[in-house]
Amino acid sequence: MNEVKQTAAAAGPIKLGELTVNRLGFGAMRVCGPQIWGEPKDKQAAIALLRRAYELGHNLFDTADSYGPHVSENMIAEALYPYPKDLVIATKGGLLRPRPERWDECGTPDHLRRALDGSLKRLRVERVDLYQLHAPDPKVPFAESVGTLAELQRAGKIRHIGISNVTVTQLQEARRIVQVVSVQNEYNIENRADEDVLLTCERDGIAFIPWYPLGAGSALKSGKVKRIAARLAATPSQVALAWLLAHSPVMLPIPGTSSLRHLEENAAAAELRLLESDLAELA
b or e along 153-163 (b: 16 or more beta carbons within 10 Å of the residue's beta carbon)? Predict the structure, then answer.
């Protein structure tokens, strides 16, 4: 790969267990087709985007078997295998996609075992660096789903375990079963409903990975965000990401995009420093 400035590295490091990654990762959901279904219209452009994301210093890639389904994992392997030594790939299992508009929870032990084996095959690895339960399944005891991941970790198929879309109570329950190194919940400047989960992670040194870090675009429409962006000669997305990074030391945003221009723009957010007055305005 060409030697380029690793812009995302300016966000600083964070630990996932003993692994160290830059605190601005890359969400690989949008390299799939429309509705996160099927292959992208321009596969070579998507592969180039994945390679460029790594070049820019995003050395945590977040994906899931349900993205595509399977498309995102396959494309990461096609773009970057054999993987650079510092690249950490996080994937998830526990959702089914019977059709584009459906995301159905499935946390049964049998499904999670099959899901992990499929991810291992598609990613061409013997062990997943970070494997996350995509969502609790209301039909399956949460402890049963987490216990299955703990069993698979003992079998050597998972290095570290994360959980997603959980409450503080569920996080505490999971931690009684296994070491949890990350929590991935929806969170952004316009949606702070899970502040209690974030504060728990902050207190206990657990990485908090906010999905929809730009609020599916809603954070970019905020008048406060727009005013600060204009004042700093930045873009609203850069301000929204810089706010996340400043808001908590355990925050690990993973903005995703299918656009090379947006990828470059998002990576540059790692270098943006908000003033105390900016943070007070956005509080």
Answer: beeebbbbbbb
Q: What's the pLDDT band for 1 if we cut at 50, 70, 90?
A: very low
| Structural domain includes residue 181 | yes
| Element housing 140 (H / E) | none
- Tell me which of 54, 67, 83, 187 is the catalytic residue: 67
Per-residue confidence (pLDDT) for residue 2, from 0 to 100: 43
Q: Which residue has the tokens 């985007």?
A: 49
pLDDT of residue 219: 81
Q: What is the mean pLDDT of the chain?
A: 96
The answer to the question of residue 229 being in a domain is: no
Let me know if 67 is a catalytic residue: yes
Cα–Cα distance measured from residue 177 to residue 198, given in angstroms and rounded to the nearest whole number: 20
CATH of the domain at 190: 3.20.20.100
Residue 4 — very low, low, confident or very high, per pLDDT cuts 50/70/90? Answer: low
Q: Is residue 124 part of a domain?
A: yes
